[in-house]
Description:
This protein is an alpha+beta fold and 811 residues long.
Amino acid sequence: MEGRQEKRHSSEVAAARERRSKRTIFKRTVILMVLCGVMLFVPLFWRLWDVAIVRHEDYQSRATKQQTLDLSVSAARGNIYDCNGNVLAMSATVYNLILSPKDLMQDCVDKKDYTDDDGSLNEGAWNAAVKAAQDQLVKDLMGLIPNLDQEKLEKQVRATEYSYREIKTKIEEEDAKAIRDYIVQNKTSHYLYLVAGTQRYYPYASLAAQTLGFVNAEGGAVGIEAAYDDVLKGTAGRVITTRTGAGTQMYNNYSEFIDAIDGYDLTLTIDATIQSYAEKTLAEGIKAYDVRNGAFCIVMNPKTGAILAMASSPGFDPNNYSTITDQLLNQEMEQDANDIYANLKQNNPEKLTDAELLEQAQAQAYSNAVNTQWRSKALDSRYEPGSTFKAVVLASALEEGVVSENDTFYCSGSYKVAGYDKPISCSKRTGHGAQTLAQAVQNSCNPAFMQIGQRLGLSKFYDYFEAFGMTEQTGIDLPGEASLKDAYWRREKMTNVDLAVASFGQRFEVTPLQMITAFAATINGGDLVKPYVVQSVSTRDKTVAENTQPTVVRQVVSQETSQRVSKILESVVSEGTGKNAYVAGYRIGGKTGSSETQEEGRTIVSFMGFAPADDPEVIVLLAYDKPQEASPGSHYSTTGVYISGGNMAAPKVGPLIADILDYMGVEKKYTAEESAAVDVVTPRVSGMTVDAAESTLRKKGLSSRTVGEGDTVTAQIPASGAAVPGGSKVILYLGSAAPEETGTVPNVVGLSYESAKKRLEDSGFFMRASGVSTYYGNSTTASGQSVASGETAPIGTVIEVQFSNVVEDGL
């Protein structure tokens, strides 16, 4: 019994132990599971927290990008028009040809064709096939696209690690069509394709290049293109759509379309025809006077400030703005490169090789040259105005009442100014003697103007100097107007000597734009106007968004004073140093200028002209910078012309103004003397007796001479109905005498009016004279002819002969 009890007890103990063991194992398992679960889920929970809370915005942005397609839609850049609606700048579609060399290698040759039955690739055969396909593409493209560099193309085609290579850019539609046909026919669109873009075009090439500027990869770079870049470029649009995981666009309710807003169009005050006249005049003068440092010309409406033309030389073609075409500028670039190279060799801390130094020098010289051609000398350069400034001094003195038309001034050839150790000379070293105010202006007499400046006094002179805008930029709507820092003296530092030389336009600097606006104020009724080149801003449908109204900055002198100044300045052209600007039929006023510079041998010759003198519609400032001296210190250029504004700029401005007024439809008004030289139509006198023919010709203001013998006119030169200058001599042929069909044009340059006329008429030609108000006197000689001597021309041709007077205008 006891044994059974002990056995049962032992079993119970063992069972209890087993239960405790199981509970322990269970507890440990639970604890282990809890610990493992916590250890596993804590990072998971942290990751969920990081994704859902901490980096929510980042992941949401990524998801949006993956699920949507956002494309930019480019806006069309606005056009630029001249005042008559001629397109000066426009944009057109061009194409870039893109190649994926990687896709060409992978897709043009199927690897399966070069794989053995066991799956091994015959790499040699496959590489040969790829090369053959590449060679064929090179051959096709070389025959399809002109001016491709074959060596460069071969490198691009074989660059199989790349998926994007530009083969050709800026392809125009005509060439693009041929390429497009090739792509379709040869099914190459998966590795060769066209991408559309835009190209800026300037239909008039170099016309008004510095004013217009150009567009580079970043947008407008210089000129109007830069100043109005935000207006012209418009606003890009967007297309936002959802897309599948494969990238396919899905157009649905979630799509969004934002149209591009095309750029606004600009209409300028520039007139393409007048601009072409101005640029032609610059080119002619540069050649005629061997000008070495460029030139500038501004044509403006003096009443409104509207710029009709702004020309600067050297110029460039904005279609190829990095190309230097000016011959002189190219020569200067070569010399500049040599000078820079010499300086670099002397200072070479980096121990560069000679080849590296030369490359660096050439790059710097090229940069200097392109920046020179992009600059507008009319806007961003300064110069000493010389005697053209005398109009400002004249207007100031008349307004203040310190001078009048009845005053006289004596010029001995120089004038002594207190504070300066030697007399200041006049351009005429022997002096002008006693002269009225008008004569002093006509003679451009420096001593007389020094006296006028003294009458004004420092304070009043400076008041008008400021009032005429000499101390402030004009504010024209173009970038790059030159700074005026250190261009003039401050009021408190101006001396009596400064006043003396400033009275004839020396030892201070202005921009050409400042000078023309100041001069305009002396003859337009007394108003200083703000110059501008953009007349209006409009949408593509021609709706005007902005329109520029003329701005009067201030009234400087009275209308009465302005009229008095205009009358005196008109006499400068009819009787004074500006007589070479005279053109029959037009009342032209103006002032010459010859500005000395600090550079030895460099003079800037200029002329400021306006017309009609009694009611100006146009004002022109033209200057040639550094006509080359025949020898150091010579007063004559290498082309034999006396270096002065009266001899170089005035003869160019007169015909330029006449062309502009003719173009504008301003009617010519001839004096009685001018009417005698106006063209007349020759009557028919063939078949008449000699006496009857001569009588008929005399009634027309024509004379005659006979060739041959007999009483009856059998032929005449010129034929009836031809227009010839009044006073011309008609050739009458008698009996069997007959006129030659052509003749050799004689040389008349350097001859007087009568000698030139006789020489031409003796050769069977007729002369139309221009250039000066009177053609008589020892100083008036022919300076050019429209048909060069030695050339063959039809008998009876009217030869245009330009006359000029040698004048010594003041500085």
